[in-house]
Every structure is written in structure tokens, then in C-alpha cells.
């Protein structure tokens, strides 16, 4: 939920507009950069270490760090690492226990001089600058050396390295496309906008506030050059920063830490994400059930509300896997408690038991703030005993205020936080056997600002009653700090400079374990809580954990899913959600969704219907809204129920495909929901497609994103596409097509070349799991065509998600066809799980088969009964049914239209 900043957000929008319009005017006397004093090249040819000194000291933004050391090295054939820091004393860096990685010096390339090496590094000695070049094309990808002929657009400074201000720029070509850098809501679509500053500072700012820094921080971008060659750049730094994306330069302005760059050679978008997630952590596999549909709201007042909702879904015949509780379940908003009246423990236990018996799940919210307002609160007592709370600059537990009133924040960097949090999770799990945890408000959100706060017993009466949206006024007495951390010399463009970086969050001078300053670690709070929560869940449940976090950072995907935060029930937010979920996938957090039908504000029937249709294809599909808004469960309106049944029906049939995509994500980082250019990078038009997306490489979702429409203009990259509802065909040379989209319909197509595993729709994913499989084989139109696909299945809850004997099944499918004949084979890499479960492939739909076959064999046995064969000329579809093929065994199916002709070929 949000910190109701509705009123100020209009002011903010205005301020942001004004700020965006003002050019960078403050770039005065930042010196003349650095000169190289000494240079040592590694003997293995993998890079160099050099010492740099500042050429001319300046005072702007504080004193320079006089002496720097740069280590530049190939980490791998496709990855280059450039690390620049103070050579005489250590500076803050993202801790290795949060984000494990080799240090610049530890890295050593195996091969002396690898012929596979894709990038090349060069430098200038004075002023110092470095450049990264793609060897294959000679193209410069990053170049921090000021251009010989600077444009008038913005000053291009040589590198600046001060105590609290780092600046470095790269030259950019004007006609490349940049993606990434988050988290923010982007009305302009996916592509980064030239001339705009992107600010990174984890903030509880509602996601409907566009073009400002939101909950997460990702200093990572992808650069698609002309022709489609793509590379990635990560600045691994957790401090606040502005990234200015200009016409012909990109400038980082960072208020601490070090310059720690990783360059990923790609050259495809998927390869970039593979290389990036290899470094920062592969996405965590999520339980199979989490791909089912989720219902949540803030304002389910009591356990009977939840029961009603689950019942109503069933009555309306709409799939539902998981029911959620927001803070309503807690007693006085305290973590790990149940309201004794509204959420009676026994009733809740029975309810969860029933859910589990029906193959459904229960997920609960937790906020990081631990209430200090009540006696005998065991979670607080144990936290105090372990001394794991954040400390203010005077060494006392740091007091803040969130939903339960006054709170202490756990320090998730503290070595004992782990065991303390696990104990709390275990104790509560023993009361309520929940299936996953939702960690909210972890930017961290604070209703007060200040480094030293206190409260009186009177101020507490405000919190005696159940939470509602009005109790987020600060009632603590706080002193705001004025140190160089509270008020750093360079002010990032935090929420359009409306607020200072310590506003409504943990004060900048607060200390984490080992003296780490909140100023440095702020953007890591959500990541550190995700890590500890994922571990606790794993320990307690002994199953694959499901964690959903609002605040995220580079590497969060290895621990958590994400939702895009507090959007609003508007057509704009429906539309913008596409870019938001695609971006999360690019950041390495592929399990992502937006609140379906909108969180804040009242939704409408038409909006909710279209949103259920689109949201049915978010990787993480959850309907959620705020307290005080009208109910928006899909069964509330018959039209929404109808479109939900239709869209979720397809989602549930696609579960084997979605689960296989999750498997691929865990192996290679490949996003589940992708931009069109991921599959068609050579098609320039795809770079500007903002309101369609792909699930995997070739299932394309083309939603209606505006009111009053019964058609949608959708872009179709080159090739043949089949509608997954009725198998009608579109053949495109790369253009827009106008598709019928009546109220109950969303357009979902599969591209030629794909074999899609599907199952039958049911009301829960658990029921889908044992239904017969269908393979959709999509052939193109040429006289010879091929298709391929994959299927991964396991029990959906084991901690590992791997191809291994005994507990999973992985099958690869290949198909080819000529004019009159064709074949489809399944090759089983590991088959045990499917065999043990008796999973069966019953149907095959061959799309793009232009002649009715008269001879079909399954594993060399001719199918003689015509009832198993159905040829439909209109979509040129051959359907083979009643196959009885075991999913865990190799098989081969052949067909031909004329046996003699084939034999004589
Ligand atoms: C893109 O920029 C490059 C170099 O600036 C130039 O050679 C090329 O012609 C440009 N292409 C287009 C389509 O503008
Ligand atoms: C709590 O709310 C009830 C009803 O709204 C009110 O009568 C009562 O005084 C409130 N208690 C406190 C301590 O504010
Ligand atoms: C939403 O609808 C309810 C009930 O009609 C109304 O009380 C409330 O003011 C509405 N909220 C907004 C933001 O329009
Ligand atoms: C599959 O098994 C059923 C029942 O045993 C049988 O009727 C059907 O003909 C079989 N299908 C094929 C293709 O052999």
C-alpha cells in the first residue's frame, strides 16, 4: 500500500515537469579530470591497473579524491569489468554477501588471449578516459573521453571523483535505442527518452506518479544499436544517482560509492540478460502454483470476507490459486500477529486447511517496521535481545513510524537478523501455515522524517484502532538532521527534487551493522530483506519459497518476485504496465505483475475487464486494490467474469509453457514477459512497440489499452502468426494489423516455428497439472518449415528446479514438414517425473499443414480410426487426438498426404 501522497503528487508532477524542462545549468568548474600516473598491464593480457591523479582540484560538490586506482579487466569473453576507486582508503561498495561476485583483482581469465573475446578496452592518459569497443564491428560502445567537438547540448566533463560526488559520461550515437534504468513508470514507453534524467532512489512513491524514482533501483541499461546488435552496461553502485540520457551522451551523477562498471557484449538482447544475470544472480525459480491467478485486496476486514471471495470465484467458475491478506489480518498492524476477533486463529487455520485441501494457497503481507508501542510483543522482545534493530547516530534504536505506529526497523545486514527473522517466521507459520510472504513498505517507508524521533503515550491513542488510510500522519516528535549525509552537496532529482533523500524514509545517518550508513545502503534495504525472507521461508517450509517484494535492487530477482506497486485504476496505468513488467524482466526479476484492475481509485467495469484480460498474461497475475475503493473481484460484473474466464482459461492452458519459461529464466535469466525486439532485434519497428509483449520468444499478447474500443491495431513482426483461441492466421511482412477485439476478447498469437505445450484449463493450477497435454505446432508458410519447443515439469515445490533424473522431466520437441508430409518428435532428456505421474500427451494441433494427410503413424503404428484425425482446411490445421503418448518417453509422429509419393521420394 502507499503512503497516501495523493495530494502532493499533483504538485510533484508539476515540479517534475518544470525540472525536466530546465537544462543542467550547474556544471561549473568540475576540473579537468585525471591523468594517468602509472600503469601495470596484467601479464595474461586481461587488462590493466593504473593509478590516476586529479589534474586540478575544485571545490564544487566537495573536495576531490586526489588519488584513484582503476582496475580494468576481462571477466569473461563477453564481459568487461572497470572498477575505479580511491587508491588510499576504502569506500562503500555493494556488499559481496548481498551480491556475490569476484573482485576486480581476483578475476582471472582462463585463456591467455581468447579468440572468443568480444570486447576491447582502450584509454587515454590525460585527461584520463576509457573506451569499450565491440571487436567484431569496431563499434565504440562506451567512451568516457570528452568528444573532440562537444555539442552544445550539455557539458561533457572528464571523470569527476569526489567524496560525495562521482560523475562520468559516455558518448552515444544519436540513433541507438536505450532501455532499462529503473524503477519508474514510463508514459513514453519502453525506450529511454533523450533529454531526460532518470533518478535512482528507493522511494514509497505511488507508481501512478510518472517519470520519478520509485521503489527499486537499477543502474543497468541495454543499448540496441542500428542493425540490432545489443550490449548492456551495469554501474554496480547502491548510492543515490541521476542518470541523464542526452542526445549524444549519457551522464552518471552519483552521490557516493565507487565507479564499478560491467559491460556485457550481448550481442543479442537475450544474451545481454544472460550475461547480466550470470553476474548478479539468476532469477529464483518460483513455485508452480504462483503462476496461477491471485486475488488480494487491502480491506478484507475479516476471515469470512476471504471465505466469501474464494467461494464466489468458484461459483463464478473463474480460476483462483491464491488468496492474499494485506495488513488487515494483523492485530494493530503488528507483524506475526492475528487480530483475535476479525482473524481468529482457529478460524484462520481451518480456512487455510480448506484452501490446501482444494489445491489453493494463502499468502500474507509483512512490513519491516516492528511495533514498539505494546507490551509483551514477543517479536520485539526477541529483536531487542538480539539487538538487530537499526541505530541512530547516537547508538540508540532508531525510532520511526509506519502502520502500527512507532516502530524499530530490523537491520537485515546484521548477521543475527537472519536467525531472528527465521524464528519469527517459524513461530507464525506454526500458527498459520501460509504458502508465501509479501514484503511491502521496504524502501523503507516511514511516515516521519528525522534522525531522532520520540513519542508520548498520548500520541499512541491514534494507533489503538485498526489501520485505515488516514493514520499515516507523523505523530512522533522528530528532529531532522543537517549533516552532509542528510543534505549532500549534490542533490539528486529525487521525486523532482520535491523532497530530500531522507524524507519519509530511514534517516541518512542511521547505522547498520558494522557502521554502514543508511546513506550508502538505502537502496539495498529491500534486497537485504528479500534475502533473509527467502532463506527463512526455505528453512521453515522446506519448499521452494515464494517471496514478493516491493523494493528491489540489482540481484533481487535471485530472491523475490515483484509487483509494480501502487498504480491507479486508470487506462493510463493499464497501458503503462506493459513497459513496467518488461523492464522488470530486463532487470533480472521476471516474476512480475501490476495490480490488475488498479490499486488506488475506483475501477470501472470496462477497465477491469480489459485489465483482467491483459493481466491474465502478466507473469505474476494478481488482482489487488486499496481500502476504501469499490470491490473489483472479477465476478462482481458478469462481463468481467466472462472475459476473465476466457483469458485466464488460456493462461491456465498455457501453464506448461509458462512454467517452462520460468525454468529458462532460472537457467539463463531470459525474461518471461519480453519486449518484441527480444525476438526480432533486426526489425527496427519493434523497438517502438510499447503496449504489446511476448511470453517467451513467440507468444504475443496484443491487449486493448483504451476505452470504447472493439478493435486493436497490433504490430506483427514478419512471419505467420496463429491466434491461440481460434487458430486463425495472420501473415505479416512486418506491419500493423487491425484485429477484432470485442469486449470479452484479448488477442494472443503464436509465431511460426514454435511448438507450445498446453494442458486443459481448470479452476486451480493443481488440477491442471494432471490433465492431458496438447502440443500446438506452428508452421510457417514456406514449402519446407520447422518448429521446435520445450517442456519442463516437476512437482512445482522442490527447492531445486533442475533437469535431473528422478524428480523432473525435460523434453525437447522438433517438427518439420514439406508440402505433403511431416514429422514431430519428442526427445526426452530426463523423464522420470512425467512417467511417475502418468502424464499423457493426447492431442496435437499442426498449424500450417496444407494438405489433409491420409496416413498418420504414432511410433510407427498407423492410426486407423478416422475419429482421431481431423483436418480443417480453413486454418489449415491437422488435429490428431486420442494419442495416448507418454510425456516421459521419446515419440515420433509422421504424416503424409500420399504414402506412395513419399515412398518414391
Ligand atoms: C545512425 O548514426 C550513424 C553514426 O552517427 C550514421 O552513420 C547512420 O547513418 C545513422 N543512421 C540513421 C538511420 O540515422
Ligand atoms: C476507536 O474507535 C472507536 C470507534 O470508531 C472509538 O469509539 C474509540 O474511542 C477509538 N479508540 C481510541 C483509543 O481512539
Ligand atoms: C469509490 O466509490 C465509493 C463508493 O461509491 C465512494 O465512496 C468513494 O468515494 C469512491 N472513491 C473514489 C476515489 O472515487
Ligand atoms: C488410446 O487409447 C484408447 C483407450 O485405450 C483407445 O480407444 C484409442 O484408440 C487409443 N488411441 C490411439 C491413437 O491408439
From TrEMBL:
GO terms for molecular function: alpha-glucosidase activity; carbohydrate binding; hydrolase activity, hydrolyzing O-glycosyl compounds. It catalyses: Hydrolysis of terminal, non-reducing (1->4)-linked alpha-D-glucose residues with release of alpha-D-glucose. Residues 1-21 form the signal peptide. The keyword Hydrolase applies. Residues 89-240 form the Glycoside hydrolase family 31 N-terminal domain. Belongs to the glycosyl hydrolase 31 family. This is alpha-glucosidase. The lineage of its organism: Eukaryota, Viridiplantae, Streptophyta, Embryophyta, Bryophyta. The gene is LOC112281065.
